[in-house]
Amino acid sequence: MKLITAIIQPHRLDDVKKELYKEDINLITVSEVLGHGRQKGVDEFYRGVKETGNLLRKYKVEIAVNENFVDKAIKAIIRGARTGKIGDGKIFVVELPRCIRIRTGDEGPEAIG
Fold first, then answer.
1. Per-10-residue mean pLDDT for the chain, 113 residues long?
2. CA angle at 28 for the pair 23 and 78, rounded to the nearest 5°
């Protein structure tokens, strides 16, 4: 089991969801987050003065998947999120040692579905 976390542009969320649904990945959690990458935000000008380092609005998409869905999920996120420009985001994949479905008490791969 893996936990896949993707940080994406807000305007790409619908495309990412559509691509995940095509791969039969329906269980996702989405959070609105703030952050910036190497570009350190965007430069804005206010009354002629340059302001740098603003935190940018992003979405964090989290998906718990069984091993046979890891590559499918990653490829779907990339298809949906990629614009080819700086700031497209990142994907993190970590081991998920334990998962429990609260309603039934199922554990492991059965709890993910």
1. 97 98 96 82 60 78 97 98 92 97 95 88
2. 55
